[in-house]
Design goal:
single chain, about 675 residues, alpha/beta, 5-stranded mixed sheet, 25 helices, elongated
Length: about 675
C-alpha cells in the first residue's frame, strides 16, 4: 500500500486530484438521487430512470479516472487511444445501469448486492480498458497483488453501496451510499494506479491519430456537460410529467383508499360499458352500501372507521378478476363494475364475493369489527343505456336491499323508479303542507299505572293531503328527514302542541318528539324557551322525547343541548329505549327524567323470554336510578298485567286509547277529567 500512497503523493498534480474528487462526488450525488426516484416508480416507468442513473454513474467513474489521469505525471510521450477511451465510457455506463437495475429488484431472486458487484466490475472494467488505451513511449508493468486489492475495493464497496440503497433507510443512509460509491471509484482508481509502473523505452513510439491530453480534457468536459444537461432536462421534464400525472391520479382516485372515485366513473364508465356492448355481452353496475358502518364510526371513532374502509378497499381489490373494478363514491358507498357478462350467474357470483368480503371481521386494538353490505345491481343495457342512469338504478336497488330483512342483493326493477318518482312528488307536496294547513296533531293518552289516571298526552303528527287523503307518518317522516324538512316541521309541531295544550283546562303534560336534525341545532334551547314564553305553557308541562340514535351521532353536542333544555325546566325522555348501542352508558351520562320502552320489546314480552328479560331489567334499572318508565305499544290485557307486576309506572298504547285529534278530546281535557275505568277495562279505541 506504500506504493499506492507514494503514487498519489508524488506522481499526481493535486489540483487535478481535487477536481476529480469533486466531479466524483457530484456525479455520485446525481446517481443516488436518480436511483431513489427510479425505485419509487412502477417497473415499466423505472427503466428510463435506471438508464439515466447508469449514465450519471458511468460518467462519474469515467470522468474521475480521466481527470485524475490528466493530473498523472507521465515521464514520457503519451496519448490516448480514441476507441478504447470511448469503449471505457460505454463499459462504465452499461455496467452501472445493469447493476442499478439488479439493485432495484429488476430481476427476481437476485440479491441487490449482486447489482453492487456488477457496478464494481464496471469500475474495474472501465479503469483497465482506459489504461489499455494509454499509449506511452515505453511499457507498463503491473503488480498483481495491488490489482487484486483494487478489485476488492471496487466489488466490495459496490456491494455495500447497493445494500444501503436497496435495503437500508435511515436518516443518513443516502449520504452513506454516496460516500461508499465515491470510495469505490476513488480507492479502486488510485490503488490500480499504484499497481502500474511505467518504464520508458526509446524504441517504442506513440502511434499517430491518438487523443492528446488537451483534447482528452475537452472531451471529458464536453461529456460531463452533455450528461449533466441531459440529466437535468430529463429530470425537469419527468418531474413535470409526474406532477401532472399525480394531479390527474389524485383527481380520479379516492385519497383514503386509493380506489377510483366518482369522477373516474363519470369519465370512464361509458367507454367501459361500450366495450362490453361491442363484444356482444352485457355489463353490470353494483352499488354497495356498508351496514353498521355508522355505528362503528360513532362508537370507535372516525380513525377506526377510516382504517376499516382502507382494509375493505384492499380486500375488494384483491378479489377482482378480469373485467372487474371497484370505486369508492361516498363515505361508505362503493360502486363495482363487471364487464363482459354472459349470464346472471356471473353477476350473482361477483355480488356474493363482495358481500362475503365485507362480512369478514376485522380485528382492531382488541375489538372485532364487523360490517355487512347491501348491494343493488343494475344491468346494461337491459335496465339503462346511460352510465349515470345505470348507477342511479343500482342505487335504487341498493336501497331496496337495505330495507329488506333477508336479501342483501337486489336487482333493479322498473317499479323502483315509480317509487322514486312517488317519493319525489311527495317531498314536493310536503314542502307546502304547512302553508296549506294540511298538518294536524293527534294526541294519545299516557296513563299513570299506580294512580290509574291519565298523566299526559303524546303529540303525534298527521298529514291530511287534500287529494291523497291521510298519509301515514311512516311514509312521510323518512322523506322529511332525508330532505331536511323535518326541521321546520318539527318546529311547527313543538309550537302548535305548546299552544294547544296551554289552553287545556287540566294541567296535563304533553310529550313532543325531537328529531335528530333538531337536536343538532345550536338554537334548539332558544326555540323551546321562546315557544314556552309565547304560548304561556309552563316548562314543567312540556316533555321532549329524544331517541338514542340522535344522541350517538354527536354525543358531546347532544349532552350540551340536553343540559340546556333541562335548565329551562322541561323534562327529557329517552324514546325507543333498548334499540340503540350504548343504552346503559347513555342513562348514566344524560339527565333523563323518563325512559320509554320500545314497543318491539313490549309486544313480545309475554311470549319471548329475551324481551321479557329486557323489559324487567329496564324497569329495575330505572327504578334504581330513580327514573320513570313508560311502556309503549300496550295492546293486550296480559301485557298490562305483566307491566303492573313488574312495577312499570306509566303505560301508553291502543289498549287505553288511540291517537285522536284535539276536537275529539277537547271536552275531556277541558273538563279536566283524569279518572279512567279500571286498568283491566280498555277504553274504546
Amino acid at each position: 500500500m506504500f506504493k499506492v500512497i507514494s503514487c498519489l503523493a508524488y506522481e499526481h498534480d493535486y489540483s487535478f486530484v481535487v477536481v476529480a474528487a469533486i466531479v466524483c462526488v457530484m456525479s455520485s450525488v446525481m446517481t443516488v438521487s436518480l436511483f431513489d426516484r427510479a425505485r419509487k416508480l412502477s417497473a415499466q416507468a423505472r427503466i428510463s430512470w435506471i438508464i439515466l442513473s447508469g449514465m450519471a454513474g458511468g460518467v462519474a467513474i469515467w470522468t474521475t479516472h480521466f481527470v485524475a489521469m490528466l493530473g498523472f505525471r507521465i515521464p514520457m510521450d503519451h496519448a490516448f487511444n480514441p476507441v478504447l477511451t470511448i469503449a471505457s465510457l460505454v463499459i462504465a455506463i452499461a455496467f452501472t445501469a445493469g447493476g442499478l437495475h439488479l439493485a432495484t429488484d429488476g430481476v427476481k431472486r437476485v440479491p441487490s448486492e449482486i447489482g453492487g458487484v456488477v457496478i464494481g466490475l464496471g469500475v474495474a472494467g472501465m479503469h483497465f480498458t482506459g489504461m489499455a488505451g494509454l499509449e506511452v513511449a515505453g511499457r507498463i508493468e503491473w503488480d498483481p497483488k495491488l490489482i487484486a486489492v483494487s478489485l476488492w475495493f471496487a466489488l466490495g464497496l459496490g456491494a455495500v453501496t447497493a445494500h444501503i440503497l436497496a435495503r437500508r433507510s435511515f436518516r443518513f443512509s443516502r449520504l452513506l451510499a454516496m460516500a461508499t460509491l465515491v470510495a469505490a471509484i476513488c480507492t479502486m482508481h488510485f490503488t490500480a494506479m499504484g499497481a502500474a509502473t511505467l518504464i520508458p523505452d526509446p524504441s517504442v513510439h506513440v502511434p499517430s491519430r491518438m487523443l492528446s491530453s488537451e483534447f482528452l480534457a475537452v472531451l471529458v468536459l464536453a461529456t460531463m456537460a452533455i450528461i449533466a444537461g441531459l440529466a437535468l432536462y430529463v429530470m425537469d421534464t419527468r418531474s413535470q410529467r409526474e406532477l401532472i400525472d399525480s394531479f390527474r391520479h389524485a383527481a380520479l382516485h379516492d385519497a383514503l383508499t386509493g380506489l377510483p372515485n366518482r369522477a373516474f366513473l363519470s369519465a370512464n364508465l361509458p367507454a367501459m360499458l361500450e366495450r362490453s356492448r361491442m363484444a356482444g355481452m352485457d355489463a353490470a353496475v353494483l352499488m354497495i352500501d356498508l351496514d353498521r358502518f355508522k355505528e362503528i364510526n360513532d362508537v370507535h371513532g372516525h380513525h377506526t372507521g377510516d382504517l376499516l374502509l382502507q382494509k375493505l378497499a384492499e380486500r375488494f381489490s384483491l378479489l377482482l378478476g378480469a373485467g372487474e373494478m371497484i370505486a369508492r363514491v361516498g363515505g361508505d358507498e362503493f360502486v363495482a363494475v363487471k364487464l363482459h357478462v354472459r349470464d346472471k350467474k356471473e353477476v350473482d357470483d361477483f355480488a356474493g364475493r363482495l358481500v362475503a368480503c365485507a362480512l369478514e371481521p376485522l380485528q382492531q386494538k382488541g375489538s372485532i369489527l364487523s360490517v355487512g353490505a347491501s348491494v343493488g345491481v343494475g344491468l346494461y343495457p337491459r335496465d339503462c343505456e346511460d352510465a349515470e342512469e345505470l348507477i342511479g338504478a343500482a342505487d335504487l336497488a341498493m336501497y331496496r336491499a337495505k330495507r329488506s330483512v333477508g336479501d342483501k342483493i337486489c336487482y333493479y326493477e322498473a317499479s323502483m323508479d315509480e317509487g322514486r318518482r312517488e317519493r319525489s312528488a311527495l317531498a314536493i307536496e310536503l314542502r307546502h303542507a304547512i302553508m296549506r294547513n294540511e298538518l294536524e296533531l293527534y294526541y294519545q293518552p299516557q296513563f299513570d299505572v299506580p294512580a290509574g289516571r291519565i298523566s299526559g298526552y303524546e303529540a303525534l303528527l298527521r298529514w291530511h293531503h287534500r287529494e291523497r287523503g291521510t298519509i301515514s307518518p311512516a311514509e312521510f317522516i323518512p322523506i322529511a328527514e332525508e330532505t331536511g324538512l323535518i326541521i321546520p316541521i318539527g318546529e311547527w309541531v313543538l309550537k302548535t302542541a305548546c299552544a294547544e295544550v296551554a289552553g287545556w283546562g287540566k294541567p296535563y303534560k304533553v310529550a313532543v318528539n325531537i328529531a335528530s336534525a333538531q337536536l343538532t341545532q345550536a338554537d334548539l334551547p332558544k326555540i323551546v324557551h321562546e315557544t314556552l314564553l309565547a304560548t304561556g305553557l309552563p316548562a314543567s308541562r312540556l316533555e321532549l322525547e329524544i331517541t338514542e340514535a340522535c344522541i350517538i351521532e354527536d354525543r358531546e353536542r347532544a349532552l350540551h343541548v340536553v343540559r340546556q333544555l333541562k335548565a329551562l325546566g322541561v323534562t327529557i325522555a329517552m324514546d325507543d329505549y333498548g334499540t340503540g348501542y350504548s343504552s346503559l352508558s347513555t342513562l348514566q351520562i344524560f339527565p333523563f327524567d323518563k325512559v320509554k320502552i320500545d314497543r318491539s320489546f313490549v309486544e313480545g314480552m309475554t311470549t319471548d323470554t329475551a324481551s321479557a328479560a329486557i323489559v324487567r331489567a329496564t324497569i329495575l334499572l330505572a327504578s334504581d336510578l330513580r327514573i320513570a318508565v313508560l311502556a309503549e305499544g300496550v295492546e293486550r290485557q296480559e301485557q298490562v298485567d305483566f307491566l303492573q307486576a313488574e312495577g312499570c309506572t306509566e303505560i301508553q298504547g291502543f289498549f287505553f286509547g288511540r291517537p285522536q285529534p284535539l276536537p275529539e278530546i277537547a271536552e275531556q281535557v277541558g273538563r279536566g277529567e283524569s279518572s279512567v275505568p279500571p286498568l283491566t277495562t280498555p277504553r274504546a279505541a
